[in-house]
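Technical annex, item 7. During the second reporting period the consortium partners agreed on a shared format for inverse folding records so that results from different sites could be compared directly. Each record opens with the tokenized structure and is followed by the designed sequence. A conforming record, contributed by the partner at site C, is shown below for reference.
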């Protein structure tokens, strides 16, 4: 066995973290964990993994589940296309493959949401196939170990690194441990900043350490400025129920529910934005009662500052129309719906308020163009108004 591969595996067996997906690493458990770990840290994933497996213990359970239940279980983990694709892929596995997750890389890549990296991880970790993984942690280790002063995101450079890794993993007697060891080394020792070179099992053969370049590598592209958007949303309350709408499956955060609203246009005040957006999105004129809160939230490629306004309908609530599912939901049932994290911050602000917004009106609204029309839990449950007051803030 290649000397550095042997040293890496010895280090991993002595230092690897106890992670729940490493216990009884079945193909399903490995698959779920690898999808969750895409662009998400281990500490964040760990509690989600346990809850998700408890809710959907087998691929069959996941395939039979309603997508809204899957998104609710994923709520807060972000990158929700992962959850949608995982659900779609589980359906394909049950329908077309008799419930057997394939161990072949090419067959895995034909499943929704499984790309080159995830297929290699599942095939190696769950099935012992010698396919190298090249994720961010592994790329960083390789850039330093072989002192590669080129951008590893370039296709030719990545192919060269994969060829080197393929030789190493083929020489190992444990492809599963080899890939996990490389990822573990990048996470625990060969960190992005201040790598712990003195603790590294590969330090004697590390070309960047010899050249004094561990701090320079891997090369990093200069990131472009991150766009910032001002958003205004309306929390429209009537008879103790609030209006929410579901995002389209092809949108960012697709399938999640939200308070209607959108981006401020040039020259608009935020109050004007929320009125315009409510008219455009749900065909409803509203009265703004007061501003509830302003929150800041960052996504992977942009940032938002979101202001939420407490509103009431300025016309019959039944006038509301939307080209996507919408519902009037009692406050008690809001927790049943999956929301984006930014909307959760708004919900937390609502929970801190305690005084009623307005006297109870005569009749509950009916939801037009609502996917829950006739069976909407918000319309089936009586509730008192629970939209509360807060101190006035200037709108910027």
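Designed sequence (site C submission):
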């Amino acid at each position: 066995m290649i000397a550095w591969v042997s040293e890496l595996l010895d280090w991993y067996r002595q230092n690897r973290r106890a992670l729940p997906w490493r216990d009884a690493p079945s193909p399903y458990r490995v698959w779920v964990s690898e999808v969750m770990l895409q662009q998400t840290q281990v500490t964040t994933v760990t509690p989600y993994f346990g809850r998700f497996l408890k809710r959907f213990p087998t691929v069959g359970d996941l395939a039979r589940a309603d997508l809204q239940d899957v998104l609710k279980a994923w709520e807060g983990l972000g990158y929700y296309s992962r959850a949608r694709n995982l659900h779609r892929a589980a359906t394909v596995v049950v329908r077309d493959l008799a419930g057997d997750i394939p161990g072949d890389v090419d067959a895995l890549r034909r499943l929704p949401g499984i790309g080159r990296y995830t297929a290699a991880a599942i095939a190696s970790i769950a099935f012992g196939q010698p396919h190298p993984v090249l994720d961010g942690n592994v790329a960083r280790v390789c850039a330093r170990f072989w002192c590669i002063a080129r951008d590893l995101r370039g296709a030719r450079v990545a192919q060269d690194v994969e060829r080197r890794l393929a030789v190493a993993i083929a020489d190992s007697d444990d492809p599963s441990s080899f890939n996990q060891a490389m990822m573990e080394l990048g996470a625990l020792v060969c960190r992005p900043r201040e790598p712990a070179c003195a603790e590294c099992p590969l330090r004697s053969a590390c070309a960047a350490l010899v050249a004094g370049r561990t701090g320079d590598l891997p090369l990093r592209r200069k990131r472009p400025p991150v766009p910032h958007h001002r958003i205004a949303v309306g929390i429209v309350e009537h008879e103790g129920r609030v209006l929410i709408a579901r995002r389209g499956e092809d949108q960012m955060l697709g399938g999640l529910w939200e308070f209607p609203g959108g981006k401020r246009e040039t020259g608009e005040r935020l109050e004007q934005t929320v009125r315009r957006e409510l008219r455009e999105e749900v065909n409803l004129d509203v009265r703004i009662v007061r501003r509830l809160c302003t929150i800041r939230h960052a996504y992977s490629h942009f940032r938002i500052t979101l202001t939420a306004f407490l509103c009431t309908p300025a016309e019959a609530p039944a006038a509301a129309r939307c080209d996507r599912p919408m519902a009037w939901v009692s406050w008690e049932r809001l927790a049943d719906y999956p929301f984006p994290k930014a909307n959760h911050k708004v919900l937390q602000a609502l929970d801190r308020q305690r005084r009623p917004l307005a006297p109870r009106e005569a009749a509950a609204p009916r939801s037009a163009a609502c996917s829950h029309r006739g069976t909407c839990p918000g319309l089936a449950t009586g509730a008192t108004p629970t939209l509360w007051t807060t101190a006035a803030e200037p709108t910027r």
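The two ends are 64 Å apart (CA to CA). The first helix runs from residue 3 to 15. All partners now use this format for quarterly exchanges.
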